[in-house]
Amino acid sequence: MRRAILNGLAVIAALSASTASAQEYPTKGPIKLVVGFATGGGTDAIARSLNVRLGEILKQTVVVENRPSAGGIVGTDAVARSAPDGYTVSFNVNTHAINQALYPKLPYDTERDLRGVTLVGSLGQMLAANPKAEANTLQEFLKLEAPNENRKRILANGGVGSPGHLAAAYLESLAGAKFTHVPYRGAGPGITDVLGGQVPYILSTSAGLLPHVRAGKLKAIAVTSPQRSPLLPNVPTIAESGFPGYDMDTWIAMFVPRATPNSVVKVLHEATLEALKSPQVRERIEAQAGRIIGGSPEQLDALVAEDIKRYTKIVKDFGIKAE
Fold first, then answer.
1. What percent of the chain has pLDDT above 90?
2. The domain containing residue 156 runs over which residues?
3. Contact 82, 257 (CB under 8 A)
4. Are residues 28 and 116 in the same domain?
5. Same domain membership, residue 183 and residue 228
6. Which of 85, 79, 94 is nearest to 33 (CA)?
């Protein structure tokens, strides 16, 4: 199901009638895209490439509001508690589903309190290494041996429960191998230590790793996407390296409070699909080794439900605890 949800731009689903009329939205501004991460990051950059075009289509001001804290929980909670009128929108990544699996007591329930608008796209992740690291392929990495609990397979990530951490843990379970996970407070410090040779390997979003791979300061081993990245055509996927069906990209999507009327969701959904046709938006996503997806609100809700189940199993199997 997940592959079907994530592949291609889906047709707009028919939404049932509701008490609010589509013509009543939007009649006031601004519309806020709430990003639960810091200004200047990849998610923020994509939101800021989208908001201007979205505002032109909706004929209202669309602003980006950053609420960086707790892996996006603070920003998501603000949206869940907001008026269900389409003027406060969560611009989120797949930590939206990860957090539900990772934290036993969130201030909101991801599925009960929020509903999908559209899946904007996905960003690739990559397993990369310091040039002096032993492994050059995924299979070489998995075959590394050391007397002390396979400590040659030392792998940095952007934090406990981050998309990179979950992607590595999922690979670990499929391969039946043991990794030593080294979590950092964000991908940046992890990349710095891999560049310096303090840690040999890292699994993180491709956007942060690409400049160093191109400069020869890191070597790319494999990508988490179901297909090879056009930016790295010679780098194999994990799926083709022995694990068919492996797909652990970081998706980006928009959500509103669950009680938001269908007609309002329909207007926002259609406007977003139109905005995604903008060359500026496409270039911003593709520059981060990403791809535009789209799809209906129902497909996004199904993806969130499926990923919550998948991430819950990974968290349980590996005893991952939130910091």
1. 71
2. 125-241
3. yes
4. yes
5. yes
6. 79
Q: Which pLDDT value is given to residue 1?
A: 56
Same domain, 13 and 60: yes
The DSSP symbol for 145 reads -
Q: Say which amino acid occupies 294.
A: G
Per-residue pLDDT averaged across 290-298, rounded?
Answer: 93
Last residue of a domain, one of 184, 216, 241: 241
State the pLDDT confidence band at 37, using cuts at 50, 70 and 90.
Answer: confident
Cα 286 to Cα 280: distance, rounded to the nearest angstrom:
10
d(CA 19, CA 262): 9
Q: Is 89 helix (H, G, I), strand (E, B) or coil?
A: strand
Q: 152-184: per-residue pLDDT in tens? A: 789 999 889 999 999 999 999 999 988 999 999
284: Cβ–Cβ under 8 A, 6 or more apart, which residues? 45, 46, 49
What's the number of domains the chain is made of?
2
Distance between CA 179 and CA 134 in Å, rounded? 15
pTM of the shown model: 0.85
Half-sphere CA count of 163, side-chain side, radius 13 A: 26
pLDDT digits (tens, 9 = 90+) for 39-77: 877 888 899 999 999 999 999 999 999 998 778 899 999
Q: Are strands 88-93 and 31-35 parallel, antiparallel or unpaired?
A: parallel
**Tokens (6 digits) for 311:** 């991430």
On whether the CB atoms of residues 120 and 46 are closer than 8 A, the answer is yes
Residue 60 tokens, joined? 């209202």
CB atoms within 10 A of CB 174: 14
- Helix (H) / strand (E) element for 33: namely strand 31-35
| DSSP summary character for residue 288 | T
β 250-257/290-294 pair status: unpaired
Asked if residue 13 and residue 110 are part of one domain, the reply reads yes
Residue with tokens 């400590």: 151
Per the DSSP assignment, residues forming a β-bridge with 128 are 202, 220
Same domain, 188 and 48: no
**Top-confidence residue, 34 or 38:** 34
